[in-house]
Write a structure and sequence with these properties.
Elements lengths: L3 E6 L6 H12 L9 E6 L5 H10 L4 E5 L16 H5 L4 E4 L2 H7 L3 H14 L2 E6 L12 E4 L13 H15 L3 E5 L7 H5 L6 E4 L6 H10 L1
Parallel strand pairs: 1-2, 1-8, 2-3, 3-4, 4-5, 5-6, 6-7, 7-8
Helix pairs in contact: 1-2
The chain binds 2-phosphoglycolic acid.
Length: about 220
């Protein structure tokens, strides 16, 4: 059975009470037959500590990821949270998401720096690419292919197309794991995870409701 990454990213959603409700719902389930699944929860930075401590306390079989890190190491950078600080709570960090590129002006150069800082701090980057031509920084081993037209609109990519891109990325960049992201839901997840070169999914909209995220993990 191949290893599958199932990543929930809440984007800019949820407060502490909402996160607690979500975690309680997941904690009420008996997690069985998930030995091949790496389940990673990526809350906003404000909830990293809370999510990490509930996972530890309730012994939930999940890892924690951040959605961003600073492009700088520690120092006088008002408002920035650096990789070393994030590493206190997380094992993974999403870098290169199209929303960071579009709304925050992150360039390939900045993303490269972020990847190197993540690796230096011991974080595994989940590097998002929008197509076959997106540059992938050195040291990346986990890529999420996220076609722009498929994000947040319940119009997922055609699984065969996603598979072709995943295979191309693996071959060209020698990347061991490529995930698919974009309108993944319980109803369509297996059409992606059954593909030979797709090693999991990155889910936002349908991860926000705990019941729907549980169904996604169960079906994967
Ligand atoms: P979505 O987002 O699941 O809401 O389509 C995916 C993503 O942006 O990673």
């Amino acid at each position: 059975m191949k290893k599958l990454f199932i990543i929930a990213t809440w984007k800019s959603h949820k407060t502490s009470p909402e996160a607690i409700v979500w975690l309680q719902e997941l904690a009420s389930k008996k997690w069985q037959n998930i030995h091949n699944k790496e389940i990673i929860i990526c809350p906003p930075l404000t909830l990293l500590s809370l999510v990490k401590s509930v996972i530890n306390e309730k012994k939930l079989p999940f890892k924690v990821g951040a959605q961003d890190i600073s492009q700088f190491e520690e120092g006088p950078y008002t408002g920035a949270v650096n990789a070393k600080q994030v590493k206190e709570f997380a094992d993974y960090v999403i870098i290169g998401h199209s929303e960071r590129r579009t709304h925050f002006g992150e360039t390939d150069e900045i993303l490269d720096v972020k990847v190197q800082l993540a690796l230096k701090a011991g974080l595994t980057p989940i590097f998002c690419v929008q197509g076959k031509k997106t540059p992938i920084p050195a040291g990346v081993s986990l890529v999420a292919y996220e076609p722009l037209g498929a994000i947040g609109n319940d119009h997922p990519d055609n699984p065969a197309d996603a598979e072709a891109v995943a295979a191309n990325i693996k071959e060209k960049h020698k990347i061991p794991f490529v995930l698919y992201g974009g309108s993944v839901a319980a109803e369509n997840i297996t059409s992606f995870t059954h593909m030979a070169d797709i090693d999991g999914v990155l889910v936002s909209t349908h991860s926000l409701d705990p019941k729907s995220f549980i169904k996604i993990v169960d079906n994967a």
